[in-house]
Every structure is written in structure tokens, then in C-alpha cells.
Fold these 4 entries.
Entry 1:
Amino acid sequence: MAAPVPPVARAAQRRIVATVGASGVLNGEGLALWREVDCGDFKATAAEIGRDLDLLEVPYEIATAFRFPLANSWNKRLRRGEEVRIARKDLTRLARWMPSLNKYIEQIPDGYSGFGFPFFEPRAEAMCVRHFALAADWPSWTAKQARAARLMCAECDYDLRQRDDEERLPYNIPLPEKPNRLRLVCGRCCNDGLDELERLAAHAGSLSYGVRRRCHVD
């Protein structure tokens, strides 16, 4: 006979099931629950969700993640938040408390988007892959929301979330006067980042930067 569930764990189960049902996002890497910073007066914070998951013995991590600015926001900055992320391999631990989750896990297609938004970044020594720390629901944002989050090509306004055209993958090509500001451009508008790669290599005093390779950068 299975051991009875302690009341404190049962209460945590009810809260987690309600939270996942209201705001959970499934993707190729797992499940995410986003919370804006200082949201505690209105809903459970990421830390509070984490404490419930601890009680249920479900592994997770909390990562910084940004969402598009609100339409009435005066400064138009991305909204900083914290995202509780449960890796796909650990979802069975959550499904123990939420059996209905199993059918959704089975429906996740192969190659589906994951946490963060990947893009290429030319550097003097190589072409690197980085990840824009966005909330996991970025694929479902409207075009207006994606534009506010700088996910449209800065040159031609192409939606960079589309990955079916390899000529239009996203590259970070900052303006010279704003070298530290993320500015995403599709490959067709920036020669796949090669012009920027050569410019940076020349600026670093090396025109022979060797074999162009792609390396992962967290």
C-alpha cells in the first residue's frame, strides 16, 4: 500500500497543478513557469514555486528570462523575470503529481524550440552561438510583441523566429555607435555575418582568422 501523502505535500501539489495549468509552457527542453520580478503581491514568485517543487521532490532550476515590454510601458524595456525550468528528463517526476501532463509531454515534436532564443554572433576569432535569455513562450508572441523584443530583423523586419530558411538565420550585428547593444539581423541582410567577422578580425590585427567555425557560448 502506498504511503499517505502528507498534507503539506498535498497542498503544494494543488498549488503546482493550478500554476502549471495557468501559465506552464512546454517546449523541447522541458517546462517553464515565468514570473516577473517583484510579482509577489499578485501571484507566487519563482522562489515560492521552487519551494513547492522541493516538497514534491521535482528537480528544477531558476533562470533569468525576459519578456516583451508592455504596450503602455513608457521606457519600452524588456521585462526582467525569473523562470522556473524543469528539464524534460525530469517531467515524469512532475507527472507523478499531475498525470494529465503525460499526454502533453508525448505530443512535444522533435526539434521543437527550447529555452532561450539562439543566434549567431561574429567574433574576431570565430562565429559563435549565443542565447538571448527570453521567456520560454517566445515562439508564440505576436509579431508586434516579437518586434518590441527585437526578434525582427533590424534591416528588413523579417521574423527571425522562423528557422525554415537557412539564409535568414539571426546574427548579432551591432551598430558601431552602440557596440554593446544586441541588434539582430537576418543572414540575407548581413552576408551571414561574414563581413562583420572580417571587420572584427581586421580590427584585432589578424586578417587570417583561420577556419570559420561555430562554437557554443552560454
Note: Strands lie at 25-27, 30-36, 61-67, 79-87, 117-122, 127-132, 170-172, 184-186, 214-216.
Entry 2:
Amino acid sequence: MARELADSPRLRVIATGNNTIGFTGTHLNLPRDRYLRLLRACDVGVFVPRMHEGWSRCAAEAVLAGMPCLIEPVAGLGDLAALSGQPAPDIPRLAQQVRERATTPPEEARAAAAALAQFDSAYFAGAWNTLLNKIT
């Protein structure tokens, strides 16, 4: 995914966290306060997991920070994408899609953050308990 964006003019790709993907561009592993400042300074977040993971804290934080995102609806990210109304990335046209998301009106980003802030914690707790009961 980063390769599709790395050669695009006017786009700067920054990866965060542990560099488990071998990204050779700008990669920052920041303390939490600086990471949150970086989130607020970015124009678009792109979340394309390689694993079928659960809820993505990074993606949720980006949405709550008011950042327009592209979220691959895989596993727990499907709930996050649906709840916040964030579209899925289309890899062949990813650079164009990032440019389009960068022009998202602020009120749309605020609406996504508000929707996420209203997340039904009872639903999440029930889903978590169901999973725990299945694996124990």
C-alpha cells in the first residue's frame, strides 16, 4: 500500500508504530502525545491491515481526531468503517482516492467522529464476551 503512494507527487507518506512492514520511507515511532499531534496534523489516514485483526485503536483515534480515512473493512475494522462512514481503499486508484479524501468537508469528518463517539459499548462488550465464551 505504501508503495502505491510513495511515488505520487504531492503526497507524503508517514508510517507510525513498529515498522513490521519493512517500510523504507518516513517512519516514526513516537511517544503517545507526539503521535496524537501527528494525527491531527495529517490530512488522510489509510488503514489496510494484513491480518484479520480486531478493532484498530490507530484507526479509531484517527477518526476521533477528525481525520478523513480509508479503512479496509476487514474483521473489526469493518465495524469501524461502517460506523464512521469511512470508505474502503481502492488500491489501483489509491493516490487519487487519498487526494479526494483530503478534500473531505470538516463537517463530514466531525460527523464521523461523533458517530464513533456514540459507539454502543454494550454491543462491543457482548461481542467480546461471545468471543471469550467460544475460545474458553
Note: The two ends are 36 Å apart (CA to CA).
Entry 3:
Amino acid sequence: MTRSIVLCIALITAIAAAHPALAQSFNVRLGQTSLGVLSFDAAGPRSVLRSTLTDTPLGVFNGTFNGVSEKTGAAQKFTGVSQSSRKSRQVSTVIDQGRAVQTNVTPEKERTDLSDIDKVPQGVVDPVIAIGGLINASGGCPKGVHIYDGRRAIALAPQESAQDGDTLTCKIAYTVIAGPGHLSPLRISSARMRLSYDVSGGGKSSRR
């Protein structure tokens, strides 16, 4: 089944990430307009998030993102590769119990102040883990989470929810809390996203 997540355009950029293993596939939309596809897969200690955006307004967010997060001992190692007509970038991080302990960004010019691990707030997870948590949330709307992508820290915070029959809709605020906003020189630092879950049978086995 193909499902859709309705997102603000700024948020899509942030999560442009990978192709996962528990093959869940989603349409990414801005209103009623399809922008591309997001997939998430999880198998054992390894999760993959992948996105391909082909129809964003003026093409400014078009591109691919492939992200892999793998548990190594108590730590979580993340590698993300972004490619567009404007640039290519690879970021890797190691997060141990909510604390960033290693970050590498290539090319070097893509580093930011938050690529210095001493400046990263504690209590963060990588983008793959965060988006997997949104997709697989159960028992209501997802809880808030702080993300570190190697270049900035982001807060996802629940705002409001509503249920209509078997559909639970959750609105989430996306805010860059440290480091630069997205899409220089625009520096977009906030957005809204809407997640719709099928809660028939008391669970959230599918999202629309």
C-alpha cells in the first residue's frame, strides 16, 4: 500500500533521507501536489531512510537523500548522502546515549558551527531514527524528539491532534534550534508537518 505524509516544503528538505528495509513507502505531498516518494526500512540493528523529490516548487528541493543508521554497541552510527543539481554532501555522525561524539562532513565547506560536537545539545537522535519513530508511532501521536543531522539540531514537537473515524491526524512543528536553517541563503528554520494514521483496530498499522 502506498501512503502519504503531508509536509511543509522546508521539512521535506530536512528529512530527505534513505531507502529502508521494512519496506514502507510513502507519497510526499505539499497540499494535494505530489512532490516525490519517501521510504523507510528497518531490519535488526540497521534502518534505512530514502527520499526522491522530483516535483518541488521551482525545483529548489529536488534531489535524493539516502540515510543509514546502524547500532554499534551502545552508539548509533548515521551516514547520510544528499544529492541535487546544486550540490552533493555526505554526513556521518555517531550518537552515544543522546550525545554526539563524532561528526564528519564532506566537502569541508559544508560544515557548520554545529559540526563541532562540543556545540551539539544533548538528548538528540539521528534523522533516520527520528523519522522511523514518526512512521512507526503507536498509541497516539508521536512524542517530541530532537534531531542532529551533523550540521544543525532540530526539534519536532507535537502541536495538536484530531481523530475522524479511523483516521488520526497529528500536526507537528519543525524548528531548527541550533545551527543554520535550510537552503542557503533562505535559511528556512521552521515548518509544519501533518501525519495521518489509520487507527482502525486500535493500532496504527498504516498511515495516509
Note: Confidence is low (pLDDT under 50) at residues 1-22, 204-208.
Entry 4:
Amino acid sequence: MAASTKQRGTVDLVPPVPERSHGPYALDADGIAALPARYAFGDACVRRVVLDQEFGPRTRGRVARIVIDARVVAEDLRWEPVCLDLTGVQHLRIDESRHFSWVLYDPPMFTHFDGLMRVDLCAERFGRSSPQNAREVFEGSDLVFSATGGTWSALRPWD
């Protein structure tokens, strides 16, 4: 009887995010540079955004997991899920996609202002320039996060 009660309270509408196959790698200067070296982000798509926040005296704050299907440059452009795990997320903006899913035209843009890392997934709007301040990062972006840190990982293929 206890098992059926537990099952009744659990609703799983989507398959879980696959486990890591490589990583996690820090989103420091080397880790950020490794992303466009490994992945071709043109026509990549955001598969999943998972937000989590704990409450109470000892929490890790708000975290975000962003899973992107991208092509591996060195492996005949095969598709692989790559995951950005952001910690200490302080601000975020997720506007509704105009299409079925988020399509990335450029690699994510990582900038640092006021001691926080900004991860902008709509970086193509800047062209060759970069934002000059934190406000510019959020203006005009539909999918952007500011966080204290994070990692990236390659994930196993989806089931």
C-alpha cells in the first residue's frame, strides 16, 4: 500500500536528463574556451532548462541546468547533449521562444560584470562586439542567466 501511495504522488512528465559522459569542467577561462572548440553551436537547440531553488538556513541558492543539443566538431558533427550547470543564479530571463524550441546561432556568450558571470544564449544580437555592462547583457536577450559560477559537462545520448 505504501508503494502505491508513493507512485500516486509522483508525476514524471518528461524523461530524465542523461548522465554525464565527460566532466564536469569549470566555467573558468579554460572551460569556457573549450566549449566552442568542442562544439559547433550553429543550429544547436536548447533541449531543457531546469531551475531549482532550496529554502532554509543552509541552501545552495538557486541553480539552473541548461541542456543543449550541439554538434561535436571533432566527431563528424554528431549530436551530443551538453549541459551547463549554473550555481548561485541571481537573475535570469527566459522569454517564450517564438519557435518550437530555442535554436542557437552562436555559442553562448560568457561575460563578467559586478562579480557575476552572465551566460547569454542569444549572443548573435551582439555580432562581433561584446556588451559593455550587465544591463546590456539582459536588454534584448530572451534567454540569459547571471550566476556566481558553474560547470559544463558532456552527457550520454538521450534514450
Note: The beta strands are 20-26, 39-53, 62-72, 78-87, 91-94, 102-104, 109-113, 116-120, 143-147, 149-155.
